[in-house]
Design brief:
Elements: H1 2-51, E1 53-54, E2 62-63, H2 67-74, H3 77-109, H4 115-123, H5 130-140, H6 147-154, H7 168-197, H8 200-208, H9 213-224, H10 226-240, H11 245-251, H12 269-279, H13 284-315
Antiparallel strand pairs: 1-2
Helix pairs in contact: 1-13, 3-7, 3-10, 4-7, 5-11, 10-13, 12-13
């Protein structure tokens, strides 16, 4: 009888230990889950709730249903202009960031000396504050004192300064250059990490078979970096559709506050969201409708970019 009681106590003790082992991970993760639900998930749901109302942040909320979305999609031409600008700037910058990031990473990866120096130099713009980048490019492309105009005039390519920042397509191009210059180091670092993970035996076998550097890069490096390229394209699309810092600091920063740039050519969806919600008026319901519409656009473009870049591999 005593043996049976001892066995029962032992079994109960083991059950308590197992239940404790199962409970502790949930207890440790509870603070993060609670913070996520309170500060992230709840605001997302509340933002959708606001998009169905007309509210200035002070008075009572007025339920309007889908009127904010209808107004946005049928009576607000600036929304489609901002969406067009955002997509154009994203298409101007993303392919170059992918291509240049891969090429720079390939060149640095095969350096025998100064590798850390060039990695640091290329990565510095990525950790530079956006405010500083806005100052740099505003001064560089200023039509009176900008170094670009001064250099081109001294070379004899121009007779007088060009209003770079007052031309619609030039403004989009300058913003794309800002994005490329700032994010090139990040793309380089990701590709370098991918190249480091590739087994060197593959390259040695290719060299033994007489493969040139070009064929090694195109037939070995590029295919093995495919997953990284897909990741960078999808995240670039998501980040590109949320563009705000570069155009805002270029046109609403140090010199004068010019919303949207020349002919609203630099107006992005997020800039319009901030301007409509907090600057020109406190239309929080309308701003929430802009945010959720952009969310749908980002989801569509993300799925399309993934399908286009990774679809062939899945079929194979």
């Amino acid at each position: 009888m005593e043996i049976l009681n001892a066995a029962a106590v032992t079994q109960a003790t083991k059950s308590k230990i197992k239940s404790g082992v199962r409970v502790w991970p949930y207890l440790f993760s509870l603070p993060f889950v609670m913070c996520y639900l309170i500060f992230h998930f709840y605001p997302i749901l509340y933002s959708f709730y606001l998009s169905l109302h007309d509210w200035n942040g002070i008075g009572d909320k007025t339920f309007v249903g889908l009127r904010n979305y209808v107004t946005l999609l049928t009576k607000d031409p600036l929304f489609f202009k901002s969406l067009f600008n955002t997509i154009v700037i994203m298409l101007m910058s993303t392919p170059f960031m992918i291509l240049l990031g891969m090429v720079v990473a390939h060149l640095i990866f095969h350096l025998t000396r100064g590798r850390m120096f060039f990695q640091t130099v290329n990565f510095l713009p990525y950790i530079t504050t956006p405010v500083a980048i806005g100052f740099i490019f505003s001064f560089m492309f200023d039509w009176q004192t900008g170094i670009i105009n001064m250099l081109l005039i001294k070379l004899g390519w121009l007779k007088e300064g060009v209003y770079w920042l007052q031309d619609p397509w030039m403004s989009r191009m300058i913003i794309a250059i800002m994005i490329i210059w700032r994010n090139l180091g990040y793309f380089m670092a990701i590709y370098l990490a991918g190249m480091t993970a590739i087994p060197q035996d593959i390259y040695e076998a290719a060299r033994v078979d007489g493969a040139s550097s070009f064929h090694t890069f195109t037939r070995i490096t590029l295919p093995l970096l495919r997953n990284i390229t897909v990741f960078l394209i999808v995240t670039s699309v998501i980040g590109g559709l949320q563009l705000f810092d570069e155009p805002k600091l270029l046109y609403g920063g140090w010199s004068a506050s010019q919303v949207g740039g020349p002919d609203n050519a630099a107006l992005t969806v997020i800039w319009k969201f901030v301007n409509d919600s907090f600057v020109t008026g406190t239309r929080f319901g309308y701003g929430s409708a802009i945010a959720y519409t952009l969310f749908v656009v980002i989801a569509i473009f993300s799925v399309l970019s993934y399908r286009i870049t990774a679809g062939k591999e899945e079929k194979a």
